[in-house]
Structure formats: structure tokens, C-alpha cells
Amino acid sequence: MTETLKRTLRDSSAMRWAMLILLSGLTFSTYWFQDFFSGLKGLMGSEMGFSSEEFGRILALTTIANMFGMIIIGGIMLDKWGIRVAGIVFGGIAVLGGAISALAASGFFGSDHGSMLNMIIVGRILFGSGLEVVCVVATRTIVKWFKGYDLALAMAINMGFGRLGSAMGTALSLDIGGGHVSPAVTFAATLIGLALIMFLIYTVFDIKLDKQEKAISDKSGEVCDPEEDFKFSDLITLIKNKSFLYIALLCVTFYAAIFPFMQYAPDLLINKFGFTQNLPQAGEVILWGSKAIGASSIYLIFFLFAILFAVVPNNFENKKTRFLFKSGALIAFCFYLFVMKDILAIWLDNGAKTASLIPLGTIIFTPIFGNYVDKKGKAASLMILGSLLLIFAHISLSILDNVYIAYFGLLSLGVAFSLVPAAMWPSVAKIVAENRLGTAYATMFTLQNWGLFLFFWGIGALLDFVNQGIPEGQPKDYTIPILVLVGCGFISIFLSFLLKKADRKQNYGLELPSNSN
Ligand SMILES: C[C@H](NC(=O)[C@@H](N)CCCCN)C(=O)O
């Protein structure tokens, strides 16, 4: 695009990607705060005396405001106040919630069991009220900057930041806490505070963009097509649509089998398969850290060159160049794995670090499957496949006792967790008109929170129930609590088939490539 056509900030690609990074701080930190307790479950039992049911209660009550309409209220506020005010208000609520939980974990409100538990829950309720609306604000902001430019890629990268936050929160919280819960909670809450500062910086550019767009529309008389405000009648119309109903229910059962599982996964791996939760010695950390940073920087430099090389026009037209590029990438990756092998071996022996590979893997797999859905379609069939993988994963992690099969189970869970979202979210956009998408996503997230509430709490309560009499610190039997999740997998398959059948009647083209619509 020539300089004369660059009319606003959003016409500069550097500006757009910089804005995405400023915005993604909130996604990264809120996903971190949502998931970091998973790595601390054992410690919360031994240090604070929290039972599995209480652990589950803390997680479940995070969703309570969303179950009763907070996401929809947040969406209406977003429409009325705009991105800046809504982002600051709901980001601020998440920060406040994080701070209250951190103070509670440090004993500020009282160091007895009840005060700590109740005040951590108060903090989590506030945090949860901000979390989902922040996700909606992020999506709306990305659309504002990227419509007409790499919108799907920008959304995938934003989601990648979220998954990275989940993975790092799960993997590193025990190390960050140094064997205590409180420092890890303070760190997680501080991250949301820093992200809010990044968002405040973002708002400066947002104001400038609005001024530029207003000046252009004043001059040319252009009027934008506004998204219609939320109406309850829309909700009824949506629910009456069979395809929407099936995909919304699938969202409930599928995510209920994934997000709650991830909160318990490190503890499951430790209790059932004997994974460790040992903290490395300071010397080991320095050695691994320097090795990992060294190897990763070399790989990153190679990767940057590869990207630079790939974006030079027509490079990939040539078969030989393509072959050289692919072999180079493979050799660099093998070298990277070789240097990192000791660290990987230790990583794969640690419960929290192994569990963190599930969200980490989705960063790579989701865009690949997203691209497949865009080009080849088959979204409903892929949701059936994802649900099958979910069933295999939960069977291998519950009734089977083999650690190698468990690794396969975790891998198939990672693939399912990439496959279904990559097929599900673009399918909603085929079923629902664009100006109703906000309502559709808010409705799906609200229903999803009901499923999460039930399973966050239910798994913990069931775990205590089937392990009555076993003292904290002794291995717990996870068979029945995880086997219950197999049921979610079967319901997901059933709903995916119903969706496929409804789509054949209603002709939304869920099995067709996105580009053909
Ligand atoms: C896209 C989808 N997002 C959600 O499900 C939201 N309700 C945010 C949940 C955040 C909790 N970690 C996803 O993350 O796949």
C-alpha cells in the first residue's frame, strides 16, 4: 500500500501487530491466572490444608458471575462504553480480583483456613467476572484493527498468547512460588496488573485511530454498518436454531472435559503415574536456563531468517527452494531437540510441566487445523474426530495404568483441544449472521461456564469422596473422576452427529471450505 493510501494507523501493518501485542497481554495474563493453581494443587493441600473439594470450589466459583449473565452484561457495556472504557473497567475488575486472592493467600485477611479460602474465592469471583468480558473486548478490538487484513491469523495469535499463559502458569508456578503458594499467586496477579498498563498504552492509539476514522467519515460522509445491540428476542431465535443449539451444547460438553481436566492434570500425573513435583536446585536452574536460552536463541535466529526468506515474493513458487527450506527447518529442529534433550527429559518427568504441554501444543496445532478447515472444510466431521480423541485420552488416563499410553493420551487430548476449537468457532460464524455474532459467542460462553462450574467443583468433590480416609500427601485414586469425563466425550460425539445432520438440512455448509461460502 502506498503512503497516500495509508489513511489511518490501522493501515500500517507494524502498528496493527504492535497493537495486537499490547492487547494480548490481557489474554496472556488472564489465562495464566485462570490456570496457574493447577500446578499448585498438591502444595495447596500440604501448605494450606485445602481439600480437593475446596480446590474445586475455588475454581468453580470463578465462573459464578458468568453463569448468571456477566458476559452478556459485559457485552452490552462494551456496546455502550466502547473498547477503551470496557477494557479498563473489566481488566480493572480482574486486577482487583487477582490482588484480593494474592492478599488472601499471603494471610492478609487472616491466616486461618476459612479466611484464606473465603477471601481467595472472593478474589476469584471478581477475577472471573472480568476474565470472560476481557476475552470479548479482545476479540472486538482485533476485529477493529484487522478487518480486511489477516483477521483469522491475528485471532489465532491472540489465542496463542492465551494458551501460552495457561501453559506457563501451569508449568512454572511451583518454581515461582519456591515451594509456597502465596508468591505464585502474587506473581500471577501482578501479571494482570502489568497487562492492564499495556492496555492503557493501547488506549492512546485507540483514541488516535478513532479520531482519524471520524475525520475520514466526516469528510466522505461514509457511514459504518454498526453491529446491532443485544436483544433477548435474538437469544430466543438463536436457541431455536437447531444447528446453533447443538454447537452451543457441544461447546459445553467438550470444554467441560478439557478445562477442568487441565486443572487437575498435574496432580493426576503425580498421584497416578508417579510424576515428580520436585523443585530443581539453583545451580541446575542456571545450567538449564543458559542451555535453553542459548539453544532457543539459535533456533529463533534461524526461524527469523526462514520467515524473512519466506516473505520474499515468489520464493515458495520454486520447488527446490521449498525443499531446501523444509529440510533446513527440519535439521534446525533436530539440532534444537538434541541440545534440549536433558531439559526435555526432566520436563517430561514433572507433573505440572508435562501437563503444560497440552495448551503449549495447541499453539502449533490450532492454526494448522484452522488452515485445514479454511481450505478443505469438514468442520462437523473434525468435531466428531476431536470427540473420539477426547474419549481415548480420558480412558487412557483413568482406567489404564501405563505411563507410555498416558503420554499418548495427553497427546491426543492436545490434538482434540486444537481440532475442536479450530472447527467450532469458525462454524458459529457460518450459522449466525455477522451482526448477531456477539450475542452468539456471549450465549455460548455463558452456557460453557455452567459446564465448567459443574466439573471444576464436581471432579474435586468426587476425588475426596472416592478417597475418603486417605490423608493429604498420600496418592489419590483418580479413576472415577476422570472416567466421568469419558461421558462428556460420548455426548460430544452424539451432538457432533446431530450437528452434521442438522447442517445437511439447514445448509450452512459446515463441511465445506470457508472460502467457498
Ligand atoms: C476460544 C475459547 N475461549 C473460551 O472458551 C472463553 N470462554 C475463555 C476461557 C478462558 C479460560 N481459560 C478457548 O479458549 O478455546
UniProtKB/TrEMBL annotation:
Q: How does it sit in the membrane?
A: Multi-pass membrane protein
GO CC annotation: lysosomal membrane
Q: Which Pfam families match?
A: MFS_1
User: Where in the cell does this protein reside?
Assistant: Lysosome membrane
Instruction: Name the SUPFAM superfamilies for this protein.
Output: MFS general substrate transporter
Q: Which domain of life is it from?
A: Bacteria
| GO MF annotation terms | transmembrane transporter activity
Keywords assigned: Lysosome, Membrane, Transmembrane, Transmembrane helix, Transport
Q: Where are the transmembrane segments?
A: 14-33, 58-78, 85-110, 116-139, 151-172, 184-205, 244-265, 285-311, 323-348, 354-373, 380-399, 405-425, 437-458, 478-499
Role, per record: Lysosomal dipeptide uniporter that selectively exports lysine, arginine or histidine-containing dipeptides with a net positive charge from the lysosome lumen into the cytosol. Could play a role in a specific type of protein O-glycosylation indirectly regulating macrophages migration and tissue invasion. Also essential for liver homeostasis.
Assembly mode? Homodimer. Interacts with lysosomal protein GLMP (via lumenal domain); the interaction starts while both proteins are still in the endoplasmic reticulum and is required for stabilization of MFSD1 in lysosomes but has no direct effect on its targeting to lysosomes or transporter activity.
Q: Name the PANTHER family on file.
A: MAJOR FACILITATOR SUPERFAMILY DOMAIN-CONTAINING PROTEIN 1
Q: Which family does it belong to?
A: Belongs to the major facilitator superfamily.
Q: What name does the UniProt record give this protein? A: Lysosomal dipeptide transporter MFSD1
* Upper taxonomic lineage: Bacteria, Pseudomonadati, Bacteroidota, Bacteroidia, Marinilabiliales
